[in-house]
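Dear colleague,

Thank you for sharing your sequence with our group. We've completed the structure prediction you requested, and as agreed, I am returning the results in plain text so they can be pasted directly into your records. Please verify that the sequence below matches your submission; if there's any discrepancy, let me know and we will rerun it promptly.
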Amino acid sequence: MIGILRSVVGTPFANVDLLAVFALSLLLVPLVPTGNPLARPDLAPWATLVMLIAAQLRARTLGDRPPPSLTARQWSLGRWLLRISRATGPITLLLWFDAASMLSLPRLYAAVGASIVTLILRRIGRRDGTTAWRPRGQRATRAWFVRAVATVLVTVLAGLGTRVLRGNALVWLPVSAYVGVLFVSIGLLEDRLQTLAQRRAAGRRDGRPHRPPRHRYLLAAFGPSLGLLLLLWLHEALIAPVGFEQAPVVTLHILAWIGILFPQPTPIAVSCLLHEVVPIGGRDPGAKPGRVVPFDEPPRGALRIDPIAVKRLRVLHHWVVPVRDPRIEVLDDPTRPLWPRQPTPLAHNVLGDSAFEPDRLTGQPQRDAITIRLRNQVDVGQLHELNAQQRRLAVLRPFSGWWASLRRQGRTYRWDKRLPADALRVVDASTQVLELRDGDILVLSTEGVARAYELEIGAPIFDHDVFGRQRPAQLEDYVAGGG
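Please find the predicted structure tokens below.
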């Protein structure tokens, strides 16, 4: 409960999308003519419309998120199918509600058809956002089916309740219950069977079985419904009977709970991966026929790593990089939210202090570039009592921006072409700040032994407590034979 309240927006600009929806509703309510389906006195169609728009803006799961150590699959068509299902989901519940309250067979047929369409859209579009984590475990199809049937059953009972209690002050009890079902349905539609099965199969760090969070669903089911019920009862008892004229009040109540249950996530860290890579052989041009290469001339392409032509090994390293909040330049104090947050995890890196620092132009948190501030410029070389250890570091960037490709820098060998400005970054004793992006290759050489690591910026971490309790993804969980 405290974690949910703490996740409420800490700045006035985080809910600007919900404020825009409320301002739009104030303009649309006077324009809806009497007799329009949206202008029904029970406010069910209007609440469904508000939830439909809010689902497009803030739809997120109320259960477990995918593991942050792995990057999710991106499929544009599946993403659009999921967006369409977010619109058909609330409409489907409204059809079930009207079919029960009106005892209408056409509405019942439409509700069954809309349910089938929603399930098909979710089934096809579920590939977007999936990860490669596939541990052995039981399927969660039965649990998801039971939740879906229970949601439809409660919606039908709410519709029958409005028919039985029509003309009574208690009619707002089933209407408020229907609004609670709308909130729960958003979280259920965003749940993934794969994630639930993965968490159950992996368990927790301490060896105990994983239990999916239920308090969020309970809060989504009873929080908005009980609050709306008290609000409508007080309005009828103290002010006037409730009708479509009170639609802005219902809109404000729904949007406020949307901001609590589905806040804009602010990550505290990002789970990155460092893949050990080796150059792909067979690409050296070799000597020309009939020409003898002298011993003092190195072969072309030797000691070179093409950042595009590399091969990943099965050795990888987890790297948790914190995301820093913007700072106030005058006071040099971090901006704090309304509720305290857990401290960000340490950036475990041998080079120095690493973090996703705020954008230099906008000042907002970003997750595109890692900034490493070298510790006193001593990390490239160390002097011990018996020997001196020299470490060299170079960063190779596979794809440079168009502005960098226009500017060229020095070549490695005299016969090489000039490289783009940010394609090669050599770290020496004078380097103070180093910036890494997704796909960059770090070549670390210590006493003649070189290792190359490819950086993969993974998924953000929003709750450090949950991340600390759940077992991270292991190699045997998502390779062949893992499930």
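Summary note from our side: Residues 1-11, 328-339, 383-387 have pLDDT under 50 and may be disordered.

Kind regards,
the structure core
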